[in-house]
Amino acid sequence: MSTNRSLKLTLKVWRQAGPGAPGHFETHELDGLSEHMSFLEMLDVLNEKLVLEGGDPVVFDHDCREGICGSCGVVINGRAHGPDAETATCQLHMRRFKSGETIFIEPWRSEGFPVVRDLMVDRSAFDRIISAGGYVSTNTGSAPDGNAVPIPREDAEQAFDAAACIGCGACVAACPNGAAMLFVSAKVGHLAHLPQGQAERESRVLAMVRAMDAEGFGNCTNHYECSAACPKGISVENIALLNRDYLRASLLERG
Amino acid sequence: MVTWLQTFVRSSVGKKACMAISGLLLVGFLVAHLAGNLTLFLPDDGAAFDAYAQKLHDLGPLLYVAEVGLLALFVVHIAFAAWTTIGNRKARTSRYAVQPDHGERTVASSTMPITGLIVLLFLIVHLIHFRLDERFEQGPFDLVEGTLAGPIAALIYIVGVLALTLHLTHAIGSALQTLGVNHPRWSPLLRRAGVGLALILGLGFLSIPIYALIAWGGSN
Hints:
The complex is a heterodimer of chains A (255) and B (220). Chain A has helices at 39-52, 124-133, 153-163, 170-174, 181-192, 201-214, 225-229, 237-252, and strands at 6-15, 24-34, 75-76, 79-80, 102-106, 115-117, 120-121. With 255 residues, chain A is α+β, with helices and mostly antiparallel strands. Chain A has 2 domains: 6-106, Ubiquitin-like (UB roll) (Roll), CATH 3.10.20.30; 124-136 and 152-252, Orthogonal Bundle (Fumarate Reductase Iron-sulfur Protein, Chain B, domain 2), CATH 1.10.1060. In chain A, the strands form 2 sheets. Chain A has a 5-stranded mixed β-sheet. In chain A, strands 6-7 form a two-stranded antiparallel ribbon. In chain A, strand 1 (6-15) and strand 2 form a beta hairpin. With 220 residues, chain B is mostly helical. Chain B has one domain (12-86, 106-216): Fumarate reductase/succinate dehydrogenase, transmembrane subunit (3 helical TM bundles of succinate and fumarate reductases), CATH 1.20.1300. Helices cover 78% and strands 0% of the residues of chain B. Chain B has helices spanning 2-10, 12-37, 47-58, 61-90, 107-110, 112-130, 135-138, 140-148, 151-178, 186-216. At the A-B interface, strand 4, helix 6, helix 7 and helix 8 of A face helix 1, helix 2, helix 4 and helix 9 of B. Chain A: Keywords: 2Fe-2S, 3Fe-4S, 4Fe-4S, Iron, Iron-sulfur, Metal-binding, Oxidoreductase, Tricarboxylic acid cycle. Chain A: Its cofactor is [4Fe-4S] cluster; [3Fe-4S] cluster; [2Fe-2S] cluster. Chain A: InterPro entries: 2Fe-2S_ferredoxin-like_sf, 2Fe2S_fd_BS, 4Fe4S_Fe-S-bd, 4Fe4S_Fe_S_CS, Beta-grasp_dom_sf, Helical_ferredxn, SDH/FRD_Iron-Sulfur, Succ_DH/fum_Rdtase_Fe-S. Chain A: Residues 156-185 form the 4Fe-4S ferredoxin-type domain.
């Protein structure tokens, strides 16, 4: 292990009392931070300090802290999940920062994700989009035999790549239009590549786009910032697939 | 049918498909428009350009049909662009202190509404110059020469075409993605072809006011 470099940082943290309340940046100085800390551990240190001083800790979302649950996520110096590619906030380490640096920490900003408090946003819009069609309506029974349904390797790969989406919302946060297309297309694309997803392929894409539009997200203008911010590297190829499937399903829809 | 259309154009994907299709058809128009304009450069004192204008004029009622179609394309493209842009602004009312940049945004992609607006303003000036001016019918080439010899007019054309070029460098590839065209082998190629076509159109249209400034500038 390398030597333990100690960091001194100035944090500009977004504080907001509740949904719709006016927010502001609060400045905090932290000294003696280990470079081996994760970004969330650094926030834990800040909160301990705040509590000891009798202040309110900064509210932020987190759970697994190993990059697979999609709970965490803040915008760090203008980048969703911070400067590292394909890395969630929990797996970002403080060695990525220089001592003396000022770091702006902001919540995901989108009309579809109202701020609950400070850095925590309400992402239930994603749950409602999933409820609209991000599933396969079939009686699964007991676990089927592994190779009972043959799936070409290429299809399995593409389905898995799309299914890697953890629903963190970084795509929405990074999109200049606050669009949720990468998330929705990952969910649509995941099932569109599998035989089990075919029966509801058309009704699914129509229902999920409708649900997405109802949540107040913006429209995709193909900047591709979403994919660059995605901790799972979801490809915008999925967005083209969603567009293709939506146009086809919309044209062929009966009644 | 009406209900279907209402549902379709109100959906985010439907709106963008309308914008993409109308935009690509307008690119087709630009290719034809440029081909016609380049006859200006034939060394025949504008005879070929005048003949081209005359041929279009001789189409009679068909020309009006084409013009109405073209106007419809512009109206659809602009209306859906305005609609989606307003929606996008509403989708993020709270601004970031540090403007997010993950390295994929380009000057062209970030300025689409602005370059579109500049092109619209330029189009209005362009129509006043050459569509609504009755002198165009008497001598198209003479009117082009007379108009573009003025340095301010030439400058307006240069700015208009530059905005159009920047708009198109993002537009063509973006429209294809919106219509569902994306493949690991073909998309990088198509995106580059889109930028290439945008540059060809841009340089082609730019050549006219620049030539005008050099060859005709100061003549009146």
